[in-house]
Design a protein that fits this description.
This protein is α+β, with helices and mostly antiparallel strands. The chain has 10 helices and 27 strands. β19 and β20 form a beta hairpin. It is elongated, with a radius of gyration of 41 Å.
């Protein structure tokens, strides 16, 4: 088993993002059978440290040279599988090397710069337990599993800690229950300049965040095209480590792992502003450079430092916040603040997210998008709904009435057997009998009930009950033409048990209530009568 590399090299290997660092072996293959001494190894070793710093160390001839490579695909993580939300403790961490190795070192990186070395294993299974009881919850950015593989041929393969594959969330964080109401900007958007002038935000209700030595108030506004944001941070010491982050989940899916529709925008008064946009595809997290570039080009933001602290103001197009061009009624969001005073850092957020869970949409709160004139819009929408419902109802009535009339015409003109004619005649005579059964008709025509069923199905394509209901409804339409008769009387004369049964049967057959059908029928009769009177008056006038 090879010896552990020294602490300086281990720190550089674990913290590196990617590189392949190795000593160059210059040699030639012997052309004859006689052995040829191996060429001397390049004793200079280059290690890439976090942030791109380069450190050089020269190996002495007495030190055993080793080839060192940093790659993320030299082993497969068996447990926990990618996209796992870890909720229990301890955690089983296991890898399966993709190349022959003599031993493997397993470790976990969390809480930004904490590294837990789990085990150095000399044989499979390469498995260790991680006791995370004392570790705070971690989002997909801060929780990173890694490994170092050792081979006997002087090769060391290290995996940089891999983010965006796991999250440590043990129970739901109580998010901000009260949603923040984002009002619509009623003034001209062109007059709303991004200049850190807080006076134009007067009268807009804000939300406060208090923690450490700072106090923050933020506000949001919206138009059909943009989301406006301002944060006023009271801080007596502003430096490059201070920043405000705006987290947005436009679809409000509260996912644990952020995707292409999630945004985290960091605004720093003295440092660099950063936008986090990406998605997990093909087994890995990929930053969306195109969306990030559009945000940098089309979003507006500005930071201003004053005697009390600093102000951050931004205007972000909605089209760059998700695949939606217009905001839905509710969106997920959070505002977090980092205050760096020397070696100490204080973090706090509006929704209650913790420092190492702030990039998980599941820990964000809710914003409600409020229209400037909702009452008028509701009235117009209701009026349009009623109008559309009335038009659709009238069209449906005409269609089904025409269809029913066509069915009636076909049924009346179709030649039927004498038996069916006599059965239908008896049904029409006994319609008012609410307890009429096929056995009663069978006695009346002196024909077995089975033959009646066969005749009706053969000639009319219906059962006895269907024909009885049809005739009752048909008779009720005839009675509807008499305005002095009530619906209750019509139901009784047609043999229905009660008026509710009649209404249900009529609506099921005609797709409209009997009262509506009767009103339309009487209106048509009245119009016909008025037309006839007008014709008579015209005739009388012509004769005179």
């Amino acid at each position: 088993m090879p010896s552990l590399i020294n602490s300086t090299i281990l720190h550089g290997v674990i913290g590196a993002l990617f590189a392949v660092c190795f000593s160059v072996i210059n040699g030639a293959v012997a052309q004859t059978a006689a052995p040829t001494p191996a060429p001397a190894l390049n004793r200079e070793l280059i290690i890439l440290r976090p942030g791109g710093d380069t450190a050089r160390s020269t190996l002495t001839p007495e030190q055993p040279p080793r080839l060192k490579a940093i790659t993320a695909d030299s082993a497969r993580v068996v447990s926990p599988p990618p996209r796992t939300v870890i909720s229990g403790c301890p955690v089983t961490y296991e890898i399966e090397p993709m190349l022959p190795v003599d031993s493997a070192l397993l470790f976990v990186r969390h809480s930004r710069d904490q590294i837990d070395t789990l085990a150095l294993l000399s044989s499979p299974p390469y498995r260790a337990m991680w006791n995370c009881a004392g570790v705070p919850d971690q989002d997909q950015t801060h929780l990173q599993f890694g490994y170092i593989l050792y081979r006997g041929d002087s090769l060391t393969v290290a995996s940089p800690p891999t983010p965006h594959r796991w999250a440590l969330l043990r129970g739901k964080q109580p998010a901000q229950l009260r949603p923040y109401r984002v009002k619509q900007l009623t003034t001209a958007a062109d007059d709303f300049k991004i200049d850190c002038d807080t006076s134009k935000w007067s009268g807009i209700e804000g939300a406060g965040i208090v923690g450490g030595n700072t106090e923050t108030t933020f506000k949001l506004l919206w138009t059909g095209a943009r989301l406006y944001f301002i944060a006023l941070v009271r801080d007596n010491s502003v430096n490059s480590g201070d920043f405000v982050e705006l987290h947005l989940d436009i679809r409000r899916d509260r996912a644990v792992f952020p995707g292409i529709n999630h945004r985290s925008l960091r605004f720093s008064p003295r440092g660099r502003s950063v936008f986090f946009v990406g998605e997990f595809t093909d087994g890995k997290y990929v930053r969306s450079d195109s969306v990030t570039r559009l945000l940098k080009d089309e979003a507006e933001w500005k930071a201003s430092v004053n005697s009390d602290g600093y102000v951050v103001e931004a205007a972000i197009p909605f089209s760059l916040l998700s695949d939606l061009d217009f905001p839905p009624p509710k969106i997920g969001f959070d505002v977090s603040v980092m205050d760096a005073d020397g070696q100490e850092e204080t973090f706090y957020s509006w929704a209650g997210a913790e420092r190492f869970t702030r990039y998980s949409p599941s820990r964000w709160g809710t914003a409600r998008i409020n229209d400037a004139a909702p009452a008028l819009k509701y009235v117009l929408a209701f009026a349009l709904f009623i109008s559309a419902f009335a038009i659709i109802g009238f069209v449906v009535y005409l269609v089904f009435s025409h269809r029913q009339e066509s069915k009636d015409l076909k049924a009346e003109t179709k030649s039927v057997s004498p038996l069916t004619e006599s059965v239908v005649e008896q049904i029409e005579k006994q319609l008012s009998n609410a307890g009429l059964r096929i056995s009663d008709i069978s006695k009346s025509v002196n024909i077995p009930a089975e033959k009646i069923v066969t005749a009706l199905m053969s000639d009319l394509g219906c059962t006895f009950e269907q024909q009885l209901t049809y005739k009752r409804l048909k008779y009720s339409q005839k009675l509807m033409r008499e305005p002095e008769i009530t619906i209750e009387e019509i139901a009784a004369r047609c043999g229905f048990m009660d008026v509710d049964t009649y209404r249900k049967a009529y609506a099921a057959q005609m797709r409209v209530a009997p009262e509506v059908s009767r009103k339309a029928m009487l209106e048509r009769i009245r119009e016909d009568q008025e037309a006839e009177r007008e014709d008579d008056d015209d005739d009388d006038g012509g004769l005179s």
